[in-house]
Amino acid sequence: MRVAVGLRLGSCLCVPHQCQCGSLVTAHGLHGCICKKVPSRTSRHNALNDLVARAFASAAIPAAKEPQGLSRADGKRPDVLTMVLWREGKPLTWDVTVVCPLAESYIGDSAANAGSAAEAAATRKTAKYAGLEMTHIFQPVAVENLGTMNASAYCFLSGLGHKISAISGDDRETCYLFHRISVLIQRFNAILLHESFADGNRWDD
Q1: Beta bridge partners of 61
Q2: Angle in degrees, CA 192, 195, 196, rounded to 5
Q3: Among 69-73, 110-114, 149-153, which range has the highest average pLDDT?
Q4: How far apart are CA 35 and CA 96, in angstroms?
Q5: pTM confidence score
Q6: Residue 23 pLDDT
Q7: DSSP secondary-structure letter at 158?
């Protein structure tokens, strides 16, 4: 909770130190959120993907992770493919990503337009899998580590929440789904900050 609040308010979270990648981590601790060397970046991606996949299971929609053979040209694989048709006679496939709006490449646009980092990441994902549009519905799910996501993903997940509610009878399923995503992202913000410390400088929980 301290890390989540500190990132939101721009507070000091740690003593300035050198990351394991060699970069300087300032007292605000932001480097851990953008460092490509911290190992939990992959774990965060997998955890978020699993969370969405479990939501589909709760909605009784079968899905397969990392499907093979969707693109014979380049072998690219989105994260998950539904085993039933979604709309327009096509199955749904999606790919998740997490971006930091406070990174130097995003901060200018993020200061002017909330959610612009997520929208930019979603646009890149859509371009990456443009070859699937003839046979599949592709949905990018881009989440900023401060909580915002791209607009199409918000609509997509809201609809998924309604499908879960139709099965469970609980109208709050959409809220629960967004809460789980938020908690997951904030949890990994803390983990990534911890991993920016060199082995000899880590603190014990």
Answers
A1: none
A2: 95
A3: 149-153
A4: 18
A5: 0.85
A6: 87
A7: H
**Percent over 70 (pLDDT), the chain:** 92
Proportion of the chain above pLDDT 90, given as a percent: 51
10 within some domain? no
In a domain, 163, yes or no: yes
CATH number at 115 reads 3.40.1350
**Whether pLDDT at 152 is above 90:** yes
176-185: long-range contacts (C-beta < 8 A, 24 or more apart)?
Answer: 177/55, 180/51, 181/48, 181/51, 181/143, 181/149, 181/157, 182/147, 184/44, 184/47, 184/48, 184/51, 185/44, 185/48, 185/98, 185/143, 185/145, 185/147
Phi, psi angles (nearest 5°) of residue 90: -125, 145
The domain in which residue 107 lies consists of: 39-188
Domain count of the chain? 1
Q: Which two tokens stand for residue 171?
A: 């109208």
User: Residues 30, 100, 50, CA angle at the centre, nearest 5°?
Assistant: 115
The pLDDT of residue 190 is 92
Residues facing 93 on adjacent strands = 81, 138
